[in-house]
Structure formats: structure tokens, C-alpha cells
From TrEMBL, chain B:
InterPro entries per UniProt: CO_DH_flav_C, CO_DH_flav_C_dom_sf, Diverse_Substr_Oxidored, FAD-bd_PCMH, FAD-bd_PCMH-like_sf, FAD-bd_PCMH_sub1, FAD-bd_PCMH_sub2, Mopterin_DH_FAD-bd
Keyword Nucleotide-binding annotated: no
GO molecular function, one term: oxidoreductase activity
Protein name (Swiss-Prot/TrEMBL): FAD-binding molybdopterin dehydrogenase
Domain FAD-binding PCMH-type: 1-221
Length: 218, 327
């Protein structure tokens, strides 16, 4: 099918990063795939790719770039196993269309640390036995990196907002600045990452330790 | 997923022009649209990515409100100091929705236009009048535990899933849209429509119209407000029932209030009858309960979702009592 990606539709360069019209010569019920040429930055390296417009960032990472850390758990945005960082913010790669990336930088779990020099959160997950099967772990770690950054920026969670900024809905001054992460905060902020093994106690302990050390935020 | 062409225009005018054809949809955060395309529920031939054309800024308006660009991410809106201090119900509604990752992706415009999570709508092997007009509504006699109790129709019992929209309905936000016929402003409530005999249309927008911004009115009352959400689990779950409420009490009497309910109807539901019943009434739990009962007299629960009526009543009473600090 990829032969049908007409080279006419491949337009490189920023000004015209548009993939062209759907092929009108094909069967209306099953139109041919549409390709797009683009460059994406992953873990500090640029890659030139031709992608199907339907391709998710998760599939690009795993199937094109060999970065199999991010996992396909549900492919519907419900489990968090595919979590990566785009420009430092945690997002779901399964619901991100690769073609929609716009010069942003992607960081996967492979880009956080190296076997001999793990990221502080990776080290904390090992030390606290924060996994059993490990399938959700890359997503958990990328999400936790995002959580620590968000708290350091003073971004609230529902727990923060209710308990600290506006008890009882009163209009008290909003607290800004870095927010401490207790267990309740971590549970709320990490609720988008599921663990079927139930390693949550270890995950909580690992993130809490990294938060205390103040070294997880990137 | 059906193959589609992808465009990323630089201006609203270009986006609107490109959306003029058949089977064209706008793409913003993609958190609902990409999923529905993967499920085969939506099959656009062309996506017009509006990330570059919709504003991602939050500006103060001359009238004392805020103008929120449609491209503002949910996480950025809820973290904004003026949203947190002036509109706590909106900040809480956003924080009560989805997960941290999804809030980083989802935009204000997309949040308003997300589709129902009714299981029949999302399953292309099942009939659904919203997805396939005229095919029927199995939810009426099937799985409707989390569906509508107010103003549903024989054609559709779906609920609108947004938390943010409930707060915006309570605030009376103004939705700025642009289309081929020009720009206009749609007040909330009023953006979303009841199912009636055409549940395929969620909103009053016409094809090709693009939400460009949401204007929050100056509303001092909203500084004392909150959002409460009852759900099956403590986090990352759609509401069973939610309430957005703001209350102004002077000398023990309700001077003004705003109340809206989520997950009870095809639209984010402004509880206007309860509001009318409360203005001028003593700020007591008994009066809050009386107002809630007046609102919920119009509830017509289905066999499996009758629980939502007392849940909505109790949420309204608790929210107002907390705001009045009379509990």
C-alpha cells in the first residue's frame, strides 16, 4: 500500500507542511493512505520520516525508531502506558498524530537516563521495587517526570486547589510557587497511569522520594 | 482508520476556507477525535489542524472578564492565577476532568465539542441515532446507568461528558465562533442542544464553524464558587453527576447564585429553576434542598439511573451549604 503514497503529496519544509489532498482516483469506500514528509526531534536527535497521516506518535516511536519503551496498553488514552514528554510536558503518544508535531521535542523513557546513569526517578523506581511486570513503568516514569515539573511550576491538582488555595470555595489568594507533593497529591496527579500488577505503593514511594530530593524535575 | 488528508493552516480564514468541503473536521488536541477515528465512529476525509490558528492566550477584557483562546490547553487554563482566584468553579471543573496527560493535550475549544461517552455511540456495531440517524437507541432499554435523567428523548438518552462546560454554563460564558458566514458569539447555555428528534447534532454550530475563543464574563459572585463531582472512582473518571455552583449571601439571605449540573442531560444543564427558587430565600440547608427538589421535579430517570436524582439533590445541597458555610 505504501507504493501508493504519491510523491506528489510529499512536501517537505516548514512553509508547506501540508500533505495534499486525498487521492480522488481511489475507491471512495477505501481511499489510499496519505503520506507526509516531516522531521521530528526525539531524545535530542532529528529524524526525517515519511509517515501515514493516521500514524500515532506511539507507533512512530516503536515501529519506525525502535524506541519500544513507550508501551501500547489500551491505545485509547485510558491507561497512560504510552506517556512521553513533548517539550517537557507529559502527553499520551497514542492519541498524538505524528503528522501534527510542529517542531516540538519528544522525550521518551530512553531519553531520560542511561543504563549506567539512570534518571533519579528511574533509580527511585528500582530502589523502591516500583514494578512487577514493568509494562506500565516507562509511562509511569515519564508521567512522574511531568508531575514533578508541574508541581515545581506551581501547577495545581484538584487536591491542591480544594485544600490549599480555596478551602470551601472562598476567594482567598491563590498560592503560587512550588507545591509540595504528599501522598494524596501524587495519587491524584498520577491517576492517568494504571498498573495492573498493583505496584502502586512502590510507585508512590519512589515518586515521593524523588520529590523530596527535588531532583526529579527537569 | 480511514485515510485522511492533513492541513495545518496559518490563519482562521484559511482554516474556515479549508473546512468548507465534505467530510472535513478540525483537529485540536485530538484526545477525543483521534480515539473516535480509531474506533471508526468518525471518518473524516480531511483534518484541518487548528493548532496554529487558535489563540493559546488568556487576556483580560475591558469589562473585567477573561478572553480565553480556543487553543488554550486545559492544564494552562486551570493553572492561570486569575482563573483560580476569580472562577474557582472553572479551575476545579478542569482539574476534575480527565488525567494530567490529557489536560496537557486537550484544548478549550475541543473540550466543548467532545462527544458523548455513551457506549453505543462509541461502538460501530451497535445502532445509535447520534452516530447513525434512524438506526435506533439501544441505550433506552440497555446500558444507560450513566446517561440522562433530564430532557432526554425517545431518540437519544446520551449525556454531555464535559466538566469544563458545566462551569462555563454556570458562568454564562460567551463562545466566539467564526465560519464562512462570518463571526458570531454563542452564549452558554445555548451552544449545546437537546437531542429532540435529531441527536446527531450536539451543538448549534453549523459545519465549518470554528470556535476561536471563550469569553468569561466579569462575575464577582463566582469568586465564591466550587465544582463537585461524584463518580465511580476518586480520579480520572467521568461524572455520575456533577455540580458547579456559585453563591452570594448577604445577612443570611441568598442574594444571587449560579447552579449547573453535569452528566444529567444531553447538554451541560443550567439549573435555572433552582436558582430562581433561591434568590431572596434564607441561606439554609432546608431552602437549598427545596430549590434542588424544584429543579429535579422535571427529572425522568430511566430504569437504571434513578440513583442520579437523589445524588444530584445531595450534591446541590452540599455544594451550596459549603459555600454558605452553614453546615
Amino acid at each position: 500500500m505504501r507504493e501508493s503514497w504519491d510523491s506528489r503529496e510529499r512536501i517537505a519544509g516548514r512553509a508547506g507542511r501540508v500533505t495534499g489532498q486525498a487521492n480522488t482516483s481511489g475507491d471512495a469506500a477505501a481511499p489510499p493512505p496519505v503520506g507526509a514528509d516531516l522531521r521530528i526531534s526525539v531524545n535530542g536527535a532529528w529524524h526525517a520520516l515519511t509517515v501515514d497521516t493516521r500514524e500515532s506518535l506511539l507507533d512512530t516511536l516503536r515501529d519506525r525508531l525502535g524506541l519500544t519503551g513507550a508501551k501500547k496498553g489500551c491505545d485509547h488514552g485510558q491507561c497512560g502506558a504510552c506517556t512521553v514528554l513533548i517539550d517537557g510536558r507529559r502527553v499520551l503518544s497514542c492519541l498524538t498524530l505524528t503528522v501534527s508535531l510542529d517542531d516540538e521535542s519528544v522525550t521518551t523513557v530512553e531519553g531520560l537516563g542511561l543504563p549506567g546513569a539512570p534518571h533519579p526517578l528511574q533509580r527511585a523506581f528500582v530502589e523502591h521495587d516500583a514494578l512487577q511486570c514493568g509494562f506500565c513503568t516507562p509511562g509511569q516514569i515519564c508521567s512522574a517526570v511531568g508531575v514533578l515539573a508541574e508541581a515545581a511550576e506551581g501547577r495545581p491538582s484538584l487536591v491542591t486547589h480544594r485544600d490549599r488555595a480555596h478551602p470551601g470555595g472562598s476567594a482567598e489568594p491563590v498560592i503560587t510557587g512550588a507545591l509540595p507533593l504528599d501522598e494524596e497529591e501524587i495519587r491524584e496527579r498520577m491517576s492517568g497511569n494504571l498498573c495492573r500488577c498493583g505496584a502502586y505503593p512502590g510507585i508512590l514511594a519512589a515518586i515521593a522520594e524523588a520529590a523530596r530530593a527535588g531532583e526529579g524535575a527537569r | 482508520m480511514r485515510p485522511f488528508a492533513y492541513h495545518r493552516p496559518e490563519t482562521v480564514a484559511a482554516a474556515v476556507a479549508q473546512a468548507g468541503g465534505a467530510d472535513v473536521m478540525y483537529l485540536a488536541g485530538g484526545t477525543n477525535l483521534v480515539d473516535l477515528m480509531r474506533l471508526g465512529v468518525l471518518t473524516p476525509a480531511t483534518l484541518v489542524d487548528v493548532t496554529r490558528v487558535t489563540s493559546a492566550t488568556i487576556e483580560q477584557t475591558p469589562g473585567g472578564g477573561l478572553l480565553v483562546g480556543a487553543g488554550v490547553r486545559n492544564s494552562d487554563l486551570t493553572a492561570h492565577p486569575l482563573v483560580r482566584s476569580r472562577y474557582p468553579l472553572l479551575a476545579e471543573a478542569l482539574l476534575a476532568g480527565a488525567s494530567g496527560q490529557l489536560r496537557n493535550m486537550a484544548t478549550v475549544g475541543g473540550n466543548l465539542l467532545q462527544r458523548t461517552r455513551c457506549s453505543y455511540f462509541q461502538d460501530v456495531t451497535k445502532p445509535c441515532n447520534k452516530r447513525d440517524p434512524g438506526s435506533g437507541c439501544p441505550a433506552r432499554t440497555g446500558d444507560h446507568r450513566n446517561l440522562a435523567i433530564i430532557e432526554h428523548s425517545e431518540h437519544c438518552v446520551a449525556t454531555h461528558p464535559s466538566d469544563m462546560a458545566v462551569a462555563l454554563v454556570a458562568l454564562g460564558a460567551l463562545v466566539h465562533v467564526e465560519g464562512a458566514a462570518g463571526a458570531r458569539q454563542v452564549p452558554m447555555p445555548g451552544l449545546h442542544r437537546l437531542p429532540g428528534d435529531d441527536p446527531s447534532r450536539d451543538t448549534v454550530l453549523v459545519p465549518g464553524e470554528l470556535i476561536t475563543a471563550v469569553e468569561l464574563p466579569a462575575l464577582p459572585l463566582a469568586a465564591r464558587s466550587l465544582y463537585r463531582k461524584a463518580r465511580d472512582r476518586a480520579s480520572f473518571s467521568f461524572a455520575a453527576v456533577s455540580v458547579a455552583a456559585a453563591l452570594q449571601v448577604e445577612q443570611g439571605v441568598v442574594r444571587d447564585c449560579r447552579i449547573a449540573l453535569g452528566s444529567v442531560a444531553h447538554v451541560p444543564w443550567r439549573a435555572g429553576r433552582a436558582e430562581d427558587a433561591l434568590r431572596g430565600a434564607p441561606a439554609t440547608e432546608q431552602e437549598f434542598a427545596r430549590a434542588a427538589d424544584i429543579e429535579l421535579e422535571q427529572a425522568r430517570p430511566l430504569p437504571l439511573n434513578g440513583y442520579k436524582v437523589p445524588l444530584a439533590r445531595n450534591l446541590i445541597v452540599r455544594a451550596l451549604a459549603d459555600l454558605a458555610a452553614v453546615r
